[in-house]
Amino acid sequence: MMSQQQSQSKMRGRRHRLAIRMDPELKRKLLPLHVRALGMVERSLGSPLAYEAQVLRPDVENTMTDLETFINLVKCAFGTGCLAMPRAFSNAGWVIGLGATVLIGFIVVYAMHVLLNDIQRLCRRHRVAVLSYKETMELALLDGPTWLHSMSQPLGYLVDVLMCAYHFGVDCVYIVFIAKNLKFLGDLHLRSMDLRLYMALLTLPLMLTFLVRNLRYLVPFTVIANILIVGSFGIILWYLLQDLPSLQELQATQHWTQFPLFFGTVLFAIESLGVILALQRSMRHPENFLGSCGILNQAMVLVVLFYAVFGFFGYWHYGDETANSILHNLPPNETLPQCVMAMFALAMFFSYALQGYVTVDIIWRGYMQPKLEENVATGRTVEYLVRCALVIASVLVAIGYPDFGLLLSFVGSFCLAQLGLIFPGIVNMCVLYSQGYGWGRLLLWRSLLFLVLGFCGGITGTVISLRELNEGYPKGRR
Question: Which of 40-49, 71-80, 160-169, 389-398 has the weakest average pLDDT?
C-alpha cells in the first residue's frame, strides 16, 4: 500500500512539474477579461488552437504570419519525396497507387489533427501554454491507465529520439539527392568525380545555412526554394505528358510484397510532423492552423492531390523503367532537364536547414541549453558546435548509404509510422481515457486503427528497406 501511495505521489509531482512550465512572464500578460470571454466563444466554435492565442507572446514580432506558415508547410511537403512517387506507384500499381496515396494522405493528415487537438486539450487541462511532442506523450500517459504511468518518461524520450532521427534522416536524403544531381551535371560539363567527393564538398556550404538560428529568417530561403520547385515541377510535368503510352500496358496492381516500399515512400513524402509542430508554435495566430479551412488542410490537400497526380503520370510515362528519382528518367542531354536538376539541387540545399531546425530544437533547447543557462556566451558557442556536428554526421551517413530510394523508404517506415500514426493513437487513447470514448467506443477504435496501420506498415517497410540496404551495401553489416 505504501509503495502504491509513493508511486501516485511521484506521478502527481511529475504532472505538477510539467504543468508549471508556462513562462511566468506569459502568466503576467494574460489578456483582459472581455478578450478572454471572446476567446471562450472562439474556442467553443472554432479551432482548439485558439487556447494558445489567449496568451500575449512577448516575441510577437518574431512569430510567423499565416502566409509564411503556409509557404513553409508547402515547402516541407514538396521535396525529394515527390520525385520518388512515380517509383512508389511502380511498387503498388497505378490503381492501388492512386487510391492508397489519397487514403494514406487522409489518414496521416487526420492523425495530425487528432494529435494537435490532443495537445491543446492537455494544455487546457493542465493550464500550460505550449507542450512539445515529448511532453504531450508524458502528460497523456500520466492521464491514462495506471499501468501506463511508468512508461511516460521512456516513451517521452523515444519521441524525441525518433523526431531527431527522422529529420536527421531527411537531411541525409537531401545530401544524397543534391550530390547525385551535382555529379550528373559535373560529369556532363566538367570532369567525372566520385559521388562521395561531392557530398564532402557540400559540408561547408550546408554548415553556413545551418548556423541560422531563427526559424523566421529561413523564410526567404524557403520562398526561393518554392519558386525553384514550382518551376521544376512544371517542366517535369511537361515532359511526363508528352507521348504517353497506352494505359493498358501498365500494371494496375503489384504483388503485395512490394507495397511496404510504397507505404514508406508515401509516408516520407507526405509526413512532416516535426516541422508542422514547430511551425504551429511559431505562428502569430495559431488559431488559424487547424479547422476545416485552416492552414494545415489548405496545404496538405494541395500536396496530397499533387503527389497522386504526379506519381500516376510519372509511372504512366516510364512504366517499369521508372527510376528512384524521376529526374533520372528525363533526357540527360537536353537543356531543360539539366536546368531542373540544378534547380532542384538548389531548392533542397535551401531546405536543408529547415528540416534540421527540428533536430537542433530538440537536442539543444530540450537537453543541452538548460544546463548552460548561466553562461550565455558559452551556450551560444556550444550550440554552433552542435549544429556543425549534425551537418558533418549527416554527410557521413549519406556517404555510407547513398541509395536515395531505399534511404527514403527506411526513414519513412521506421520513424514516421511511429510518430505519425502509432504515437498519436496512444496519446489519443490516454487523453480520452478519463472522459470516455463516445458512442460504441468509436474514438477508441479510431486510435486502434492508427496503431494497426502504423505497426503493420512500419514494421514491414522497415524490414524490407533494411534488407535491401544491407544487400546493396554489405559494409553496413559490420
Answer: 40-49
Burial 340-358 (b: 16+ CB within 10 A, else e): bbbbbbbbbbbbbbbbbbb
State the pLDDT at residue 44.
Answer: 29
Phi then psi for 57, rounded to 5 degrees?
A: -95, 125
Burial category of 19 from C-beta neighbours within 10 Å (exposed 0-12, middle 13-18, buried 19 and up) = middle
Q: Is 445 within 8 Å of 409 (Cβ atoms)?
A: no
Are 408 and 186 a contacting pair, CB within 8 Å?
Answer: no
CA atoms within a 13 Å half-sphere pointing along the CA-CB vector of 478:
5
Q: Considering only CA atoms, which of 37, 73, 78, 32 is closest in space to residue 56?
A: 32
- Residue 318: name the closest of 405, 239, 225, 221 by CA: 239
- Using DSSP's 3-state secondary structure scheme, residue 30 falls into strand
Question: Is the pLDDT reported for residue 2 higher than 70?
Answer: no
Q: How far apart are CA 94 and CA 86, in angstroms?
A: 9
pLDDT in tens, 291-325: 777 788 888 888 888 889 888 999 998 888 888 77
Beta strands in 148-219 (DSSP E): none
Cell 514516421, residue?
Answer: 416
Per-residue pLDDT, 18: 52
In order of 23, 35, 65, 288, the CA distances from 58 in angstroms are 10, 17, 16, 19
Cell of 73: 508547410
pLDDT in tens, 398-419: 888 777 666 667 777 777 778 8
DSSP assignment of 424-463: HHHHHHHHTTTT---GGGHHHHHHHHHHHHHHHHHHHHHH
Output the CA torsion sign for 7, 9, 15, 20. negative
Cα–Cα distance, 120 to 325 (Å, whole number): 39
Which residues face 30 on adjacent strands? 55
